[in-house]
């Protein structure tokens, strides 16, 4: 077996399952899960119809790994509509089977494990695929903590120069998971300068870009590069997905865009990896990327939900409305002494509500775990269910202000 598999840590949801293994939750309450970031809003009917219509056309041909020209054009057109960017659909855009698959595969494409000290820099806390992709590529992760006093901005200045010097890939997530923080142009400018100096690739995970609560839409890495005159998007790849934007996580559809030279090599890797997208998924994806009305409606649903739920939780937890995404990143009460896992376990037992311990989404690094003492709540269900969960959490905190 591949010895690098032994380096992988249990996935957060497996750890949560183990945490709850011996717990008997309140049988009088309906279970409510805020643990997994899986969109629950209804999939738009027109996307389902496009999927069905494509099936009727048959599945008798192998799809091309590069995707149909119509899909690449639809993705490029969306970039034009959303960010006023003109990318070459043939060379700077590539359909992928969801951002998760692509984040992992791009890492295998980019990393050269034969170079001494191959390093992948990742936010901390982070989406667990970043770490697994780095380890299985033969690189070592370096974790950069977020700072709650600076809207959970990552402390890029804390990375030593010798680490940047051996870095081959940097993961960026904006809007962030789990914090919801959006990176400003100044932060992008700093990272581009570091990339120019040290030659590493930037992988910009932007799958939450269409769920936001401010008037100004989140800035894309591609958009930031263009504003700074980097029109060739050198060493930059952005990842975009339909899962959250269009409520189709089961479709497994997204695209990457950016540096044409990297896209070319990524396509080569994917050709051997067998990563072609089903033609029926491509047809549904073309329909989804071409419509914005359902995205506006989806965003408004989240805005209404967060406006109702956040104040209830803010009465008992350290939490506020994020910039974007569908998570609340809350601090547990001081009386719990930062034990987020114990808090989540006791909450589940008393109120049958599942939240994810923040320490499960981060790593102990340089003497601390930046997720410790926090919980992530995914407000993906309908408003009434999320509001009931918030009221149960508030009731629990008032009854249990400190750890037993």
UniProtKB/TrEMBL annotation:
Pfam families (UniProt xref): Aminotran_1_2
Occurrences of domain Aminotransferase class I/classII large (ranges): 32-393
Keywords: Aminotransferase, Transferase
Entries under Gene3D superfamilies matching the protein: Aspartate Aminotransferase, domain 1 (3.90.1150.10), Type I PLP-dependent aspartate aminotransferase-like (Major domain) (3.40.640.10)
Coiled coil (UniProt feature): none
Cofactors: pyridoxal 5'-phosphate
InterPro entries named in the record: Aminotransferase_I/II_large, DapC_beta/gammaproteobac, LL-DAP_aminotransferase, PyrdxlP-dep_Trfase, PyrdxlP-dep_Trfase_major, PyrdxlP-dep_Trfase_small
GO molecular function ontology, one term from the record: succinyldiaminopimelate transaminase activity
Listed EC numbers: 2.6.1.17
EC primary class: transferase
This protein's record includes keyword Disulfide bond: no
Name the record gives this protein: Succinyldiaminopimelate transaminase
Protein's organism: Limnohabitans lacus
UniProt lineage: Bacteria, Pseudomonadati, Pseudomonadota, Betaproteobacteria, Burkholderiales
């Amino acid at each position: 077996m591949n010895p690098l598999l032994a380096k992988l840590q249990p996935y957060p949801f497996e750890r949560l399952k183990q945490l709850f293994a011996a717990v008997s939750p309140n049988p009088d309450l309906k279970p409510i899960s805020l643990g997994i970031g899986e969109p629950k809003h209804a999939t738009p009917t027109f996307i389902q119809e496009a999927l069905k219509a494509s099936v009727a056309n048959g599945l008798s041909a192998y799809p091309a790994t590069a995707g149909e020209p119509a899909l690449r054009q639809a993705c490029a057109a969306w970039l034009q509509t959303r960010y006023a960017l003109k990318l070459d659909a043939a060379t700077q855009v590539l359909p992928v089977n969801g951002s998760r698959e692509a984040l992992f595969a791009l890492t295998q494409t980019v990393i050269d494990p034969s170079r001494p000290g191959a390093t992948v820099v990742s936010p901390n806390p982070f989406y667990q695929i970043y770490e697994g992709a780095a380890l299985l590529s033969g690189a070592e992760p370096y974790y950069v903590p977020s700072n709650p006093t600076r809207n959970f901005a990552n402390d890029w200045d804390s990375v030593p120069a010798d680490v940047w010097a051996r870095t081959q890939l940097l993961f960026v997530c904006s809007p962030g998971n789990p914090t919801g923080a959006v990176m400003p142009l100044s932060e992008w400018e700093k990272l581009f300068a570091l990339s120019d100096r040290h030659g590493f690739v930037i992988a910009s995970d932007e799958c939450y870009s269409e769920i936001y609560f401010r008037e100004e839409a989140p800035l894309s890495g591609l958009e930031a590069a263009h504003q700074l005159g980097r029109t060739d998007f050198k060493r930059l790849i952005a990842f975009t997905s339909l899962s959250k934007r269009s409520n189709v996580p089961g479709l497994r559809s997204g695209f990457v865009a950016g540096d044409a030279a990297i896209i070319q090599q990524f396509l080569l890797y994917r050709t051997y990896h067998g990563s072609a997208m089903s033609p029926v998924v491509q047809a549904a994806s073309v329909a989804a990327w071409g419509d914005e009305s359902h995205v506006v409606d989806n965003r408004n649903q989240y805005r209404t939900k967060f406006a109702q739920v956040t104040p209830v939780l803010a009465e008992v937890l350290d939490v506020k409305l994020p910039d974007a995404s569908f998570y609340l990143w809350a601090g547990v009460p001081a009386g719990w002494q930062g034990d987020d896992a114990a808090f989540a376990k006791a909450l589940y037992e008393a109120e049958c509500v599942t939240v994810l311990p923040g320490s499960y989404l981060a790593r102990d690094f340089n003497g601390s775990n930046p997720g410790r003492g926090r919980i992530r709540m995914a407000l993906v269900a309908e408003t009434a269910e999320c509001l009931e969960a918030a009221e149960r959490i508030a009731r629990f905190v008032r009854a249990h202000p400190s750890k037993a």
